[in-house]
Write a structure and sequence with these properties.
single chain, alpha/beta, three-stranded antiparallel β-sheet, 40% helix, 12% strand, signal, transport, SBP
């Protein structure tokens, strides 16, 4: 497929702060180099774009052990800003890095536009080292386009002190129990809610992960053909109907937007009593809602049907190799060190990263946690719960190859339902139409 990804991030580019890439390396060391990434003097220079500081820590360690390799780690902004900058560099034909950190939901967009190297042959047998759900995250149409750096299996983070006050003795095991618990917490007072959700853009991944856990598969991608069904897909309908009930009965705080100061305050004082979000959340709770230290606990997510063991992912990142780099071999060796070697992974986890590989979930260096977080979660072995979450079953949810459009327009439609201007089913119907129009405008064939 040869369509350009330039248009596919147009909305994102308008919304996000543009980051200059003029000074960023293109993977060219300035010396004559072959495809091994080794120059005439035997040295290699690799440029990496990453917002994750543990990548920089890994690079320092790697250079100590490989003195002929120079790794330049550049932070060009958030995940969204990195997408924009990478797209601009690729479109310009210069300025792109050798390696870029990329969230799983962004891989399809760049892989299908032929911007990433196919790593399938280089990663034979790697799948055995990662949970199936995480390994799916780096694949598009059965081919591998990245190595998992971290992961975001969903978990339920809840304020045990508030749950106790409401007479809830254990974390809900099903979504029906969660609904009943929401009524108990609401009865504590006007300010108390089991969770908050304003239907803003930041909630797009949360909502889609609920759909995924319900068995939903509203999006399908086959080359330049896509299907979009947010109306009749059974898993989507299940999630929409459930969340509509929560909205109708005023059981969730629909006025506080996620990641705002008010949101952090609610998590800190217990008026927002729980969150279902990715396993990367503990550090954010520690920094944003320090007031609740000792009160929070973690559980695996409620199930749609009692006895099931199904989860979905919210976030998680990989390292990708940018197509056309002259440092492909040297760059992949560094990627392999960061993501697949025991030493590289251990160093990153010790720096605070949430792992992606199966071995780490059983290791002392992960399971022992950190002193601050052990205290925050009241002495609970929270790491064991998150490791369990990573090993749960996941469905076949696919991301559209223009996911930035999904993320950056979700709130325009869903927000109306959360403000009770219309039903969520109508919001999803309109959202579906907008995505179909966008897909067709980008040159995709939308299968009806």
């Amino acid at each position: 497929m040869s369509f350009s990804i330039k248009k596919s991030v147009a909305v994102l580019g308008a919304a996000a702060m543009m980051v200059s890439v003029a000074a960023c390396g293109s993977g060219d060391t300035g010396a004559k180099s072959d495809n091994s990434g080794t120059s005439a003097d035997g040295k290699s220079t690799i440029t990496v774009w990453s917002w994750d500081t543990t990548i920089e820590d890994a690079a320092k360690k790697y250079m100590e052990e490989n003195p002929n390799v120079t790794i330049k780690v550049l932070n060009v902004g958030t995940s969204a800003q990195t997408q924009v900058s990478l797209n601009n560099a690729i479109a310009a034909g210069k300025g792109a890095p050798d390696i870029s950190l990329m969230e799983y939901h962004s891989i399809a967009q760049f892989a299908l536009s032929d911007a990433l190297e196919d790593l399938t042959d280089k990663t034979s047998g790697f799948d055995a080292d990662y949970p199936a759900g995480i390994w799916k995250g780096v694949q598009v149409n059965g081919k591998v386009y990245g190595l998992p750096v971290d992961s975001g299996p969903n978990a339920l983070f809840y304020n045990k002190a508030v749950f106790d006050k409401a007479g809830i003795t254990e974390a809900p095991k099903t979504w029906e129990e969660y609904y009943q618990d929401a009524k108990k917490i609401r009865a504590l007072g006007d300010d108390y809610y089991i969770t908050s959700d304003a239907g803003d853009n930041n909630q797009s991944t949360v909502f889609m992960s609920l759909i995924a856990q319900a068995g939903g598969a509203p999006f399908k991608v086959d080359g330049d053909k896509v299907s979009i069904d947010l109306v009749n897909d059974e898993g989507t309908k299940k999630a929409v109907e459930y969340w509509q009930r929560m909205i109708d009965e005023d059981l969730i705080n629909t006025k506080v937007t996620s990641w705002s100061d008010e949101w952090n305050k609610g998590l800190g004082d217990g008026t927002i009593a729980s969150l279902v979000t990715g396993a990367w959340m503990p550090g954010n709770l520690l920094s944003g809602a320090a007031q609740a230290s000792g009160n929070f606990r973690v559980a695996t997510v409620p199930q749609w049907n009692e006895g099931e063991n199904v989860n979905s992912f919210n976030g998680g990142s990989s390292l990708t190799l940018i197509k056309g780099t002259k440092n492909a071999d040297a760059a992949f060796k560094f990627m392999e060190y960061v993501c697949h070697s025991k030493e590289g992974i251990k160093n990153r986890v010790s720096s605070g990263a949430f792992p992606a590989d199966s071995e780490s979930f059983k290791s002392d260096y992960y399971l022992n946690g950190t002193d601050d977080l052990n205290k925050y979660f009241g002495g609970q072995k929270y790491t064991e719960v998150l490791a369990q979450a990573a090993e749960q079953e996941v469905g076949d949810f696919e991301f559209l190859p223009f996911w930035s459009q999904v993320q950056n327009t979700f709130g325009d439609y869903a927000g109306k339902a959360y403000r009770k201007e219309e039903k969520l089913s109508k919001s999803m119907e309109d959202f579906q139409k907008s995505l179909i129009d966008y897909a067709e405008g980008q040159g995709f064939t939308v299968e009806k």
